Amino acid sequence: MTVLHLLLISFILACTSTAFAEALNSHSSNNNMKRVVVTGANKGIGKACCQKLLEEHSDVFVWLGSRSSERGEEAVQDIIKSVGGDCQDRIAMVTLDVSSEESVLQAAAKIQQQLKGDGKLYGIINNAGIIRGPDHSVVDTNYFGTKRVVNAFLPLLQRPGGRIVNVASASGPYFVQGLSQRDTLYKALKEPWTIEGGLDGVDELAKKYCDQYGSSYAFSKALVNAYNLLLARSQPDLIVNAVTPGWIKTDMTVGQGATNPPSQGAVPPVWALMDPELESTTTGLYYGSDCKRSPIHEYRSPGDPVYNGPTGIEATSSK
């Protein structure tokens, strides 16, 4: 081997070492990214949330949760095409069916492995839900599914300041508003802090009243609001809030008169996940589609005065 060959090999090795070091530095800098999970994200509002996060926040990495890995991968490619190739290293698909305990736990384990070391999740958008089906299926997916995800991913969230956004619906307050004020369920859903048994008590309400009111979707979203407040009380170092995305045209609302696009529905969840002012605001609240505080026991139209009733929670989130 000639001296020229040796010099050439040394040069190649030096270049390779430099590239490797740069890759390591790049990976290290990625540890400063805000890593988030969005459930039910292969289409509709969830997919729009993923796209909005990547478009507007260059320091965010998104796991797009999807029941179907095939549809999830298609959604990832659609988003990369829309946002631009520069985002391809900031999004990945994770198979996640919120109606399956096993699926949720497997997704959490996979993400924990990918976080590595002391990496943490910045936040979760609990978006997955269904509007039609047997009463028990709707409640199981919309309410218990939300709880499954929180329970599985809670240990992965950064503290303090990790965020949980629970996507509710204006149908929740409508449901409570329609109950008799003498109804035991009315008081429980209007003032969740009075529910005996706390978080477990919400489970009991879900099971007891699942098929008694003829509107399992609205009932399930009222439960999400109750759960949201009690979860915030139990996790004072996290930022936990619920939002309604508004009446959005998706596969779930087809033929029901909704005209607003999913991109508009993504505004409240992404705001609740990213807005810095929420770091010093009382947590456990419910916000309307205009990102203003709203009551959980009666409907508030976008643009109406901000609701200033009791919060039912003393703790505030810390930075």
TrEMBL record:
Signal recorded as keyword: yes
Keywords: NADP, Oxidoreductase, Signal
Protein name: Short-chain dehydrogenase/reductase SDR
Source organism superkingdom: Eukaryota
GO cellular component, one term: membrane
Family under the similarity heading: Belongs to the short-chain dehydrogenases/reductases (SDR) family.
Chain positions covered by the region annotation Disordered: 297-319
PANTHER family: (+)-NEOMENTHOL DEHYDROGENASE, SHORT-CHAIN DEHYDROGENASE_REDUCTASE
Source organism: Nitzschia inconspicua
Signal peptide: 1-21
Gene Ontology molecular function, alphabetical: oxidoreductase activity
